[in-house]
UniProtKB/TrEMBL annotation:
Basic and acidic residues bias spans: 80-89
Protein name per Swiss-Prot or TrEMBL: Dynamin-type G domain-containing protein
Lineage: Eukaryota, Fungi, Dikarya, Ascomycota, Pezizomycotina
Gene3D superfamilies from the UniProt entry: P-loop containing nucleotide triphosphate hydrolases (3.40.50.300)
Organism this protein belongs to: Aureobasidium melanogenum
InterPro entries, sorted: Dynamin (IPR022812), Dynamin_GTPase_CS (IPR019762), Dynamin_N (IPR045063), G_DYNAMIN_dom (IPR030381), P-loop_NTPase (IPR027417)
GO process terms (BP): endocytosis; intracellular distribution of mitochondria; mitochondrial fission; peroxisome fission
Amino acid sequence: MASLGEDLLGVVNKLQDLVFNTIGNDSLDLPQIVVVGSQSSGKSSVLENIVGRDFLPRGSGIVTRRPLILQLINVPSNSDRPEGDEIHVPHTPASVAGQDE
């Protein structure tokens, strides 16, 4: 039985294929970054530095257990956003959010 993370990754991959096959690659030009490395080599720190915020769990051993797909959305500073920044990671498996499964 596949885990929630594996199921979600499969859905995202199917959606990307659908978009590519429907409107083509030229119409959807999204930058992508892949971070790969051994355990405790700083992959999560690289992602946090790109975003400019600390939002991933910290600890010893394996902490981030699932593949992550982060979507960054630029919100202009002159928007009607309330004070303070908010980091929202949709569809985060419980183990990534620091909770037991």
